[in-house]
Amino acid sequence: METNVTRLEVAISWQIKVELVDRKMEQQDLADAVGIERATLSRYMNNRRPMPMAVFFKIAEVLGLSPRVLMERAEARIDRQEVQTA
Fold first, then answer.
1. Residue 86 and residue 77: Cα distance in Å, rounded?
2. pTM to 2 decimal places
């Protein structure tokens, strides 16, 4: 399944990875807390599947952030031109 991955989707995935590192969490920890399989989370994080909004909101909650703050941090990466799509 081919997807048209936007810079924002890439930035969100990248920011979630940064937040995990900052919290010394593994993807498995996040997947368990969100209530999804690690493989499913991996597909979202590697932009192989679009992340449902409900999952994004739950991830933000687990990370102790509001969805708005998580989104703003991701958008800042775009502003700094830290992300590109393939």
1. 16
2. 0.87
Helices 27-34, 53-62: axis angle to 10 degrees equals: 110
Instruction: Please count the residues of the chain.
Output: 86
Q: Which CATH architecture has domain 7-79?
A: Orthogonal Bundle (1.10)
pLDDT digits (tens, 9 = 90+) for 14-56: 999 999 999 999 999 999 999 999 999 999 999 999 999 999 9
> Is residue 23 classed as helix, strand or coil in its secondary structure?
coil
Closest CA to 58 of 70, 50, 48, 46: 70
Domain boundaries, the chain: 7-79
Helix ranges (H only) for 1-86 are 7-22, 27-34, 38-45, 53-62, 67-79
Residue 4's CB is within 10 A of a number of other CB atoms, namely: 7
